[in-house]
Amino acid sequence: MNAHPALAARQHPVVQVSNLVRSFGRGPNILDGLDLTIRAGEFVALLGRSGSGKSTLLRTLAGLDTAPAGTVTVPAERAVVFQEPRLIPWKRVWANVALGLRTPDARERAIAALSEVGLSHRLEAWPLTLSGGEAQRAALARALVREPKLLLLDEPFAALDALTRLKTQGLVASLWRAHRPAVLLVTHDVDEALLLADRVLVLDQGRIGFDLHVNLERPRHHAQPAFATLRSRLLRELGVEEENPEEPVEELRAPTRSRAPAASSRRLEDAVWSASADALARS
Amino acid sequence: MSAAVASTPAASTGSDRWLRYRRYLPPLLIVVLWQIAASAGLIPTRTLASPAMIAGTFAELISSGELPRHLLVSLGRVTTGLGIGVVVGTTFALIAGLSRRGEDLLDATLQMLRTLPFLALVPLFILWFGIGETPKIALVALGTMFPIYLTLFAGIRGVDAKLIEAGGTLGLSRREQVFHIVLPGALPSALVGLRYALGVAWLSLVVAEQINADSGIGFLVMTARDFLRTDIILVGLIVYAILGLSADQIVRVLERQVLAWRPSFLKD
Ligand SMILES: Nc1ncnc2c1ncn2[C@@H]1O[C@H](COP(=O)(O)OP(=O)(O)OP(=O)(O)O)[C@@H](O)[C@H]1O
Ligand SMILES: [Mg+2]
Q1: Residue B215: exposure state from Cβ atoms within 10 A (0-12, 13-18, ≥19)
Q2: pTM confidence score
């Protein structure tokens, strides 16, 4: 079922952050008066240049980092998938997924979650024998089995090869459709953000500098003209100039201060990835 | 080239077996040469008993019950001392490894004591504990405690912080994180320490039993020296070697069981 933005807007907020400030040591404020609201079931992608504080924000929402100033409201039911799978090597795959579940049917729930991510044949495997993609899927199962209201994903696909990455993105999309947690996905990949998210945020100078509602029908497709428009607007926002810029579009910039262009050429490479992503949108 | 490719499985297992046993040939050859030299009168028995004599003495000592008796005494000292050393070393490592305050309390002291050659404490131990069983067991316990403490402490502190963090996000309490993540993660290191401790245990026992004892393998060897019985001395050495090897083997089997998740064991 498609989440209509108007419908999403009526949902109650599950994450409310206001005036969040965080610095490390005597350094500058990495997060500097950040405000953020995520509604129930909303899929939010977070972009930003390397070192802009994306992981810091995600760790704060996960309760792994306490900020000195600001208020943070998050649901107790939340789960994290990190860039590395972080499976416990000495526990079988199913036991990793069941870890921390306190119901008597923990094993059954773990097995069900693993079959949902297509790993029912690897239940008894040792984590170190899994491929990178399988390990990341097991980590997804471990997060989803907790039935989180908020799912935090910190570049979970970054270490995967292009094809596995597409498949895993498709998997995340369908799991989100089935379970409807609110999702915060940290990514460097503009296309990934546009394919998956209801809203794309850009973190810049310690605040959400740009908040883009993606009003595209799902499943989404690279060939959609609206997709290309949003994509070039987002790239421009990240400071990446395209070869053939589309005609200027009215910008949905958050009413904050002006920002310096902030993107490396690295992200351009990330952004201009293979058109085979279309396959994902169709799946 | 093509012959190697075409070799049948049977042929390859045959050569595998040959490769496995081939390494035992040189020591066997040495024993044979040794026996020949002894029989020809080239090596006086006073210097070194012949292999045949050693074998004979071995059988005699076993059938008379003398060797089993001394062996049991030595084994008792090693296991008691090792047991105490492992318990104390583990306790200290847990206290120092799992809390900053515990580290401040214990680590500096233990690191300082560790640099002391513990066998140099023998005179003090005799003064403190007399000449009974206590100083022998205490020496083994002291010698084995340090490798256990050091490796377990290092293992606990070396556990990947990212795994502990992941455990936290899964809702594990601190106690559960220690139980599910920290201790199993420290186990590979601790088992290396256990193997090392076993070596130290035998070493301490040899020293302890030769100083003042009326039983044990070390006592057997020391009395044999007084009667110039090189055959008995060599039997004692062989027993030490067998005990050392079997202890190491036991730890290896243990490692295979509890570290089955490690890639090095996953291959087979
Ligand atoms: N524990 C820490 N101690 C000191 N500085 C830190 C710590 N954690 C993060 N920082 C600094 O805070 C800044 C933001 O880090 P963060 O990991 O949030 O960036 P990011 O946006 O996730 O970057 P990337 O895209 O490369 O993952 C960086 O400059 C980093 O060096
Ligand atoms: Mg990061």
Answers
A1: middle
A2: 0.80
Structural domains of chain B ordered from first start? 2-39 (no CATH), 51-266 (1.10.3720.10)
Amino acid at A135: A
The CATH number given to A5-77+148-282 is 3.40.50.300
Task: Work out the angle at residue A103's Cα, subtended by the Cα atoms of residues A43 and A83, and round it to the nearest 5 degrees.
Answer: 35
Annotated domain spans of chain A: 5-77+148-282
ipTM of the complex: 0.78
Tens digits of per-residue pLDDT, B151-208?
999 999 999 999 999 999 999 999 999 999 999 999 999 999 999 999 999 989 988 8
What is the C-alpha end-to-end distance of chain B, expressed in Å?
28
Q: Which ligand neighbours the alpha carbon of A206 most closely? A: 1
Side chain identity at A34, as an amino acid letter?
L
Nearest CA in chain A to B172: A100
Q: Is A167 exposed, middle or buried (0-12, 13-18, 19+ CB in 10 A)?
A: middle
The CA distance from B260 to B252, in Å, is 12
Residue among A142, A172, A143, A147 nearest A157 (CA): A172
Q: Who lines ligand 1 at CB under 6 A?
A: A 24, 30, 48, 50-56
